[in-house]
């Protein structure tokens, strides 16, 4: 049975900022569209196999809960699994080299 995917407003804002930058500042609308396609593919995989991607140790340490991470192009998609509700909470999309300590600022259940 597939898990439901829940997207946080923080993730939506971050994705909008990233794709706007790619489209407008870099002039690469095809790359922004490809990012959306790649994310849709990851969401599909995660919904069927929530543990398909490993625990992100640094993010988990920063937040204090087990967080999984999947690479999507130059970014790291971070999500939390709620087994009881069979829900995936996708809470951020970060540049892969971004400092995990800044995750402490994110609202998290």
Largest sheet: 4 strands, mixed
Order of helices and strands: EHHHEEE
Question: How much strand content do the residues show?
Answer: 15-25%
Rounded to the nearest angstrom, the radius of gyration is: 14 Å
Low-confidence stretches: none
Q: Strands across the major sheet, in which order?
A: 1-4-3-2
Through-space gap between termini: 24 Å
Number of helices: 3
| Structural class based on helices, strands and sheet pairing | alpha+beta
What is the averaged pLDDT score? 91
Task: Explain the layout of strands and helices.
Elements: E1 4-7, H1 9-25, H2 29-48, H3 57-63, E2 68-72, E3 75-82, E4 87-95
Parallel strand pairs: 1-4
Antiparallel strand pairs: 2-3, 3-4
Describe the overall structure.
The protein is of the alpha+beta class. 40% of the residues lie in helices and 24% in strands. The protein is built from 3 helices and 4 strands. The chain has a 4-stranded mixed beta sheet, with helices on both faces. The relative contact order is 0.21. The mean pLDDT is 91.
